[in-house]
C-alpha cells in the first residue's frame, strides 16, 4: 500500500543524486532499458514538474518526469513504480500530483507516448481517460508509438 509514502517534488531534492539513485535501481522500475530517457534535463531544467515517492525508510518507490510546454500541453515523459509497489495506487497518485501541478499552470491536456506493445502503459493511461492514436515513425523510421491524450478538465 502507498500510505507510507511521501511525494516530494524534484525541485526540493538534489537532481544529480536522485537521478543517480534511480538509474542505479533502474531494473526495479523498468522491464526495458530506459536509461537514455533519463537525460539530466528532466531532473535539472524540468525538475519542477517531477515528483519522487519515498518511503518512511528513505526508499524510492516511484517517480514521474514531466513538463508543461509554453503552449500549455502537459507532457508526461516517464512514470515508474518499483516492482514491489505496483498495483497499490501509487501510479495514479503520482499522476494526480502532476495533473494538479499542470492544471495550476494552465494546462488543459496531458499527453504520454508509449510503445504499441506496452500494454500495461496503454491500459493505465486509457483507464485514466486517455484516447490513443498511432503515430507512425514517431521515434524514427519503423519506430511507431502510441500518443495517449487526455483532458485535464474535470
From TrEMBL:
Keyword Transferase included in the entry's annotation: yes
Highest taxon of the lineage: Bacteria
Name of the protein in its database record: Acetyltransferase (GNAT) family protein
Species for this entry: Geodermatophilus ruber
GO molecular function, one term: acyltransferase activity, transferring groups other than amino-acyl groups
Residue ranges annotated for the N-acetyltransferase domain, each copy included: 16-153
Keywords recorded for this protein, A-Z: Transferase
Pfam family, one: Acetyltransf_1
